[in-house]
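Hi V.,

You were right to ask for the full record rather than a summary. Here it is.
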Amino acid sequence: MWRIMIQPLNSAERDHLAKNLPDWRLADDRDALIRDFKFKDFVEAFGFMTQVAILAEKMDHHPEWSNVYNRVQILLTTHDCDGLSARDTTLAQAIDRLVAR
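Predicted structure:
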C-alpha cells in the first residue's frame, strides 16, 4: 500500500497564513493554528462542535479542541509531518465557512 507523505507548509505558504486565516493564530508552544470561538450558550457551542466533527471526519483530519460552556478552542496541526500542513489550512478555512453562515 502506498502512503502519501504529508509535507509541512513551506515559507511562502506560511507567509499567507495571516491573510488567508485572519482569525487564527500560531500556537506559542508548537507548530499549530489556534482559534477561539464564543457562542450564545452551551447548546450553540456543542452544535458548532458537532458540525466541525462531521466536517473533520469527512476530511479525515481531526482537531484538538476544548469546550467550556459557550467557548470552544480549536487547535490544528498535522501529526504525520509534526507541524502545519495544507490539511490544517484547508480544515481551518472550512471551519471559518461554518461560522460565516
